[in-house]
Amino acid sequence: MKPTTGARKKMLILPRWYPNRKDIQLGIFIRQQALLLKNDFDIFVVYAQADENLNSKYELNSNNSDGIHEQIVYFRPGKGIFAKLLNAHRYGKAQETAIRNINGKIDLCHVHVPYRSAFPAVHMHSAKKFLTSLQNIGQVI
To answer: Please, which residues have CB within 8 angstroms of residue 29's CB and are 6 or more apart in sequence?
Structure first.
């Protein structure tokens, strides 16, 4: 599918799984899909991952390899009784930080498995910033 205008469209992918330093095989199929789309779109991937060995609260790793702009943000997971709540907050903040790091307007957002990775897409979609597609176990919603 070729963009209809001369300018290339920007696609943001918010996956539930993606290869990272903790597991290089996690979500490899999503990276393969992004590679297939890179000839028609500027592809930006934002992925957040907990890392209990992190010294700081957040670490942003930007990578432009194989024509894909990857923003992988690691966050230190919380501990104790409020760990789940704290982790949800840090996950969201990690995504938000990476999305703000993308220059220009996003035209399309694709979310694999609409879980907590979908929250920024739903928020930006409701603000009429771009078209959103959600995929849940093989079904496009």
So the answer is: none
pTM of the model: 0.79
Separation between Cα atoms, residue 119 and residue 133, nearest integer Å? 13
Which tens digits make up the pLDDT trace of 75-134? 999 999 999 899 888 988 898 889 888 888 888 888 876 655 555 555 554 545 554 554
Residue 141: is its pLDDT beyond 50? no
- What residues form DSSP beta bridges with 42? 10
Q: Give me the half-sphere count of Cα atoms (radius 13 Å) on the Cβ side of residue 136.
A: 7
Structural domains in the chain, sorted by start:
9-140 (3.40.50.2000)
Count of Cβ atoms closer than 10 Å to residue 15 Cβ: 23
Inter-axis angle of helices 119-126 and 83-100, nearest 10: 50
Q: In angstroms, what CA-CA distances link 52 with 22, 86, 96?
A: 10, 13, 20
| Amino acid letter, residue 27 | G
